[in-house]
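Thanks for the sequence, V.! I ran Coenzyme A transferase right away. Repeating your input here for the record:
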Amino acid sequence: MSEVTIPQSTRAEIAVTACSDLFHGQGDILASPAGIIPTIGARLAALTHAPDLMLSDGESTIYAGVPALEHQGVPGGYLPYRELFELIAAGKRHVVMGGAQIDREGNHNFSAIGQHSKPHRQLLGARAAAANTINHRTSYWIPKHSRRSMVERVDFVTGVGRTRAENAGKRAARFHQVHQVVSNLGVFDFSGPGHTMSLVSIHPGVIVEEVIESTGFALNIPDAVQSTRLPNRQELHLIREVLDPLQRREQEVRS
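Predicted structure:
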């Protein structure tokens, strides 16, 4: 029997698969991804290893199936804000948030840039980021990994890291779970000393020195660095032909 050849993956497709893997072991919860690649990743998870994931339009509609990125989707249920906040409080959600900054302790910022007393750039705002981080699993997507986005200390704390949650008391720390960070260079978690950021894997084509140079703090590096897994043939078919035939993923992360 001849060996089966898997088509070559782009960096964007590897990032999609890494975002899909964020939802491994997740049951009947609401997936709330922000960004093109996390959205494709959540939908890929629902079509493969996490069929019980609930997917929504991010406003008030639960999808009956798994739509392509450009499609509106078939309504399967109604999720008003009052019920969304009940899901958040019950921990029945996994959000993948973007952000301008994230620091080594998992604090996250998309409120403002600059000195706290006089910021020079206003961003999206706090929204529900703090509530997300203290109530249910939260991951982050950083499409442009750099010293500007991966910083020693965020200018404003929007999402709460583990140490800050513990310092705030039991209510803030009880259900706190900042899970992982996926960037265009690799995958990271907070298994380092004092819940600090550690390198989990680097995407194929990336070297450790590139990650270190692009990070604005001392990153915990394991002795044996793993490579982020490649999407398999089924996943590539779903990404390219079903979920994102217009290749919008390649606009967010270029190979």
